[in-house]
């Protein structure tokens, strides 16, 4: 894809959280300060909230890299709608404890024994709970009860809660969570990046993959990108992935505002289309493309592997995507060869002035190239949709 065209070592704007790409915006710097303060206290709860895609998971991954493994044991939970008993068992499993078949009391006893053992070994224990907005009041209360475990006067467990904005509102307003509120020692809400942070963010990620200035970034890109994405890092990643792919398809060494505008229009149309209509609406030009057939096969395989995505299915999806890309570029090359052949046939002599028939043939060539370009864009859009969907599932 565009990585090879521009000489990148990997995809610079992947959707999956990766601490290697951590960018310290103003709001992330503040969040890291609150996290550092909270962890130094060694007790209670630290709460980090933010919009979907604001960088919570990347922030925590970056934090984990800074923790000393011999002094801190970390358990991680990504929640669905758990009740109290389920929360206790999931927390126990996050620390590697085998509590299968045990009731809540047995799971709690296993957690307490584990915490005491870690304390005797000189290690603190941190439980990270992501997507906390999905938790029931009962599950949150069980987390609060876990924070009661102590060895003498020393607390044995600290909890980091990550959630979307509604979780922040739940904690602030729920009468049932008053005791948990009193144990929150640090909290921060991740804000979107400021307009002036978009360019450094994009350049930071490009530099990480070996960017040497190709493609060149027009200065007119950054304000429109901030406006279109609201400064949300994951949305910026989506736009930049599309922009780089379009730049590679059109063999551009400079990414300019007109390319960005085409990307944003295309993404807006995709977002406004109803999924059901997309499945049933006839698309004769796209459906007749060999590359589109490969895309359809890839989508079918992806849907069939929804419940159990393994190495074999991932490999099949990747092969279909590569085949679709190769076919799309092959179609484009064939069209260019036809154009050259037709233009050679129409090359006028010095004494010849083209008439209406020549102009009509030239217009037909232009129309055919426009149709080919549109078909190629449709194939590329479908491929990106598959990749982004896969990326979101992996991130989840």
TrEMBL record:
Residues 270-288 have a biased composition (Basic and acidic residues). Residues 42-216 form the AAA+ ATPase domain. Coiled coil: none annotated. Signal peptide: none annotated. It holds the Pfam family AAA_22. Residues 270-319 are annotated as: Disordered. This is XrtA-associated ATPase.
């Amino acid at each position: 894809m565009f990585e090879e065209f521009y000489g990148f070592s990997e995809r610079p704007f992947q959707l999956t959280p990766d601490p290697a790409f951590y960018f310290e915006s103003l709001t992330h710097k503040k969040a890291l300060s609150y996290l550092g303060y909270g962890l130094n206290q060694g007790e209670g709860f630290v709460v980090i909230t933010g919009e979907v895609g604001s960088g919570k998971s990347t922030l925590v991954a970056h934090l984990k890299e800074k923790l000393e493994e011999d002094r801190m044991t970390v358990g991680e939970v990504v929640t669905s709608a758990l009740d109290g008993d389920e929360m206790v068992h999931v927390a126990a499993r996050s620390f590697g404890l085998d509590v299968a078949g045990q009731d809540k009391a047995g799971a709690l006893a296993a957690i307490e024994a584990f915490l005491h053992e870690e304390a005797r070994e000189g290690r603190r224990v941190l439980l990270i709970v992501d997507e906390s907005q999905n938790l029931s009041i009962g599950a949150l209360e069980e987390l609060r009860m876990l924070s009661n475990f102590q060895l003498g006067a020393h607390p044995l467990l600290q909890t980091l809660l990550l959630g979307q904005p509604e979780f922040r509102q739940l904690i602030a307003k729920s009468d049932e969570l008053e005791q948990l509120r009193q144990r929150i020692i640090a909290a921060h809400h991740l804000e979107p990046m400021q307009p002036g942070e978009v360019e450094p963010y994009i350049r930071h990620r490009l530099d990480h993959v070996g960017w040497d200035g190709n493609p060149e970034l027009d200065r007119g890109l950054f304000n429109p990108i901030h406006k279109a994405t609201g400064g949300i890092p994951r949305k910026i990643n989506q736009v930049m992935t599309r922009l780089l792919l379009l730049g590679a398809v059109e063999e551009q060494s400079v990414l300019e505002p007109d390319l960005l505008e085409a990307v944003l229009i295309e993404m807006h149309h995709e977002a406004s289309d109803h999924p059901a209509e997309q499945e049933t609406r006839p698309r004769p030009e796209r459906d007749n493309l060999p590359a589109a057939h490969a895309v359809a096969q890839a989508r079918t395989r992806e849907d069939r592997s929804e419940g159990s995505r393994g190495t074999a299915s991932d490999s099949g999806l990747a092969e279909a995507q590569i085949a679709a890309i190769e076919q799309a570029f092959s179609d484009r090359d064939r069209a260019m060869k036809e154009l050259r052949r037709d233009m050679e046939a129409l090359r006028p002599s010095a004494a010849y002035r083209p008439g209406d028939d020549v102009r009509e043939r030239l217009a037909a060539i232009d129309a055919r190239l426009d149709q080919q370009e549109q078909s190629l864009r449709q194939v590329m859009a479908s491929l990106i949709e598959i990749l982004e969907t896969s990326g979101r599932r992996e991130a989840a």
